[in-house]
């Protein structure tokens, strides 16, 4: 069994990005500028944005955080999005999810200029992705592809079962794994809450990508020998042995399934760091386009 180390892989990619930024600056080019919009005081969102700022500093990007009150109106948030769309100094920006309940997330994401949509959530970018045209890929699916690429995992002709059909992970990764290219050329089965024979499908899978958000949903008896296991899930569970009082677990029962896997991502330290570095890759791409 080989552990797919997202931390080490993302660190290697950050070093490559930092070298590219240095080349841009030496040639008189623009330093990439990423902005994160943070609405409210969600603890997980604050932690994630703080990590993104650290990542930007490490690779030499300019970064800013726009902090907005949880009571901001939808119209006011949309005005802020339009301001960032019009700001020539900003190469890309993200609106950190989730948003307060009174704000329509899809309406906000639709308002982002596709050329600055470095999260890759705008329908224009998703549509181009589906047609295998150049676009900003959603960060988590991009991170999964990069991890497979860096470990030279064979995907062509393999049966890939994706668990979960979210627009952020499940649906886009199912399209990307089936595209004509590498990583890709897999035969993909997209499963969800209405799938009736899920354990049977999982046992036939060469590659399992679990993005459901249910801890240890994929058990060892659902995994065949030699499978590649990609765990996107991160759920906080109580653990009194930890100083924090909790720990993160994935959708796959790592301890029991690892012995059957050829490759497996840990939680934490697998897909998560790759998601963050993918945001940097998209921002660098946006800066180059300018």
Using brief descriptors, characterize the structure shown.
single chain, globular, Rossmann fold, 290 residues, 11 strands, alpha/beta
Explain how this protein is built.
With 290 residues, the protein is α/β, with parallel strands linked by helices. It has two domains: 28-114, Rossmann fold (3-Layer(aba) Sandwich); 139-272, NAD(P)-binding Rossmann-like Domain (Rossmann fold). It is 40% helix and 18% strand. It has helices at residues 6-26, 43-59, 74-86, 105-111, 123-130, 139-150, 170-178, 198-203, 254-257, 271-289; strands spanning 2-3, 33-39, 62-68, 92-95, 159-163, 187-191, 207-210, 227-231, 235-238, 246-249, 261-264. A six-stranded parallel β-sheet has the order 1-11-8-7-5-6. Strands 3-2-4 form a three-stranded parallel β-sheet, with helices on both faces. Helix 1 (6-26) packs parallel to helix 10 (271-289) and helix 6 (139-150) packs across helix 10 (271-289). The model has no long low-confidence stretch (mean pLDDT 94).
């Amino acid at each position: 069994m080989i552990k797919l180390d997202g931390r080490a892989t993302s660190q290697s990619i950050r070093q490559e990005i930092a070298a590219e930024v240095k080349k841009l600056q030496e040639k008189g080019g623009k330093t990439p500028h990423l902005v994160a919009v943070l609405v409210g005081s969600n603890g997980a969102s604050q932690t994630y944005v703080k990590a993104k700022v650290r990542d930007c500093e490490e690779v030499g990007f300019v970064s800013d955080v726009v902090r907005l009150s949880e009571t901001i109106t939808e119209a006011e948030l949309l005005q802020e999005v339009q301001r960032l769309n019009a700001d020539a100094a900003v190469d890309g920006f993200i609106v950190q999810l989730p948003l307060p309940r009174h704000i329509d997330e899809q309406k906000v994401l639709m308002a982002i200029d596709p050329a600055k949509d470095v999260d890759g959530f705008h329908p224009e970018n998703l549509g181009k992705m589906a047609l295998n045209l150049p676009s900003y890929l959603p960060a988590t699916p991009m991170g999964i592809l990069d991890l497979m690429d860096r470990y030279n995992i064979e995907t062509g002709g393999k049966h890939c079962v994706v668990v979960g059909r979210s627009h952020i992970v499940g649906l886009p990764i199912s399209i990307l794994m089936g595209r004509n290219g590498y990583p890709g050329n897999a035969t993909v089965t997209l499963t969800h809450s209405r799938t009736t024979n899920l354990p049977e499908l999982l046992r036939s899978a060469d590659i399992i990508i679990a993005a459901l958000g249910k801890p240890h949903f994929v058990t060892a008896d659902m995994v065949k020998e030699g499978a590649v296991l990609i765990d996107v899930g991160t759920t906080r569970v109580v653990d009194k042995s930890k100083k924090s009082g909790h720990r993160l677990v994935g959708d796959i029962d790592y301890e029991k399934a690892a012995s059957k896997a050829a490759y497996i991502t840990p939680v934490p330290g697998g897909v998560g760091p790759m998601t963050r570095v993918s945001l940097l890759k998209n921002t660098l791409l946006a800066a180059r386009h300018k």
